[in-house]
Input
Amino acid sequence: MKGKTALITGSYGGLGTCFVNIHAGDGGNLILVGRSQKKLDEQAESVSKQYGVEVHAITADISSPDAAQMIYDTCKENGWQVDYLINNAGFGGQGDFTRERTMEQDMTMIAVNIEAPTRLCKLFLPDFINRGSGKVLNVSSIAAMMPGPLQAVY
Ligand SMILES: NC(=O)c1ccc[n+]([C@@H]2O[C@H](COP(=O)([O-])OP(=O)(O)OC[C@H]3O[C@@H](n4cnc5c(N)ncnc54)[C@H](OP(=O)(O)O)[C@@H]3O)[C@@H](O)[C@H]2O)c1
Output
């Protein structure tokens, strides 16, 4: 929405790019979050040029337990008010739970898909409540509603 700022994790991925373009197309400003600084910089430049909106970028690997706090602190320090939090970054993966999937693969999946969005909600929601405005979009999957073979953790 015009003039509102959306923070979007996984901004240069498939769905992330769609959210970015829809929001910027409506005149909304953006805070892009992703692991690759190069991709963030390219996206920020092209989106601000195409839509004439304000675009900031935060480089973060959200599988790290410190990332959410760093993202929140960066917004605060720069005076960037987040109006919409879009928890979009995530990934899947298949394989036999006991024989093929490693501990690290599955714990990283939980950290990115579950832990980071929870941390970001914990940090940003109090501001939304105090202001009386703000929205959260948590991107999930149909696979969350039904069990899938070889997708025990996803
Ligand atoms: N595509 C589908 O069919 C589908 C279906 C249902 C649900 N979903 C969900 O929709 C969301 C977006 O999916 P997509 O298909 O657009 O995926 P995608 O194209 O793979 O994009 C995922 C985005 O998340 C980022 N990301 C992954 N791990 C990260 C990390 N540790 N820290 C920061 N960013 C990270 C990726 O950045 P890098 O490129 O740097 O890794 C990428 O920008 C996910 O939550 C996914 O589970 C997708």
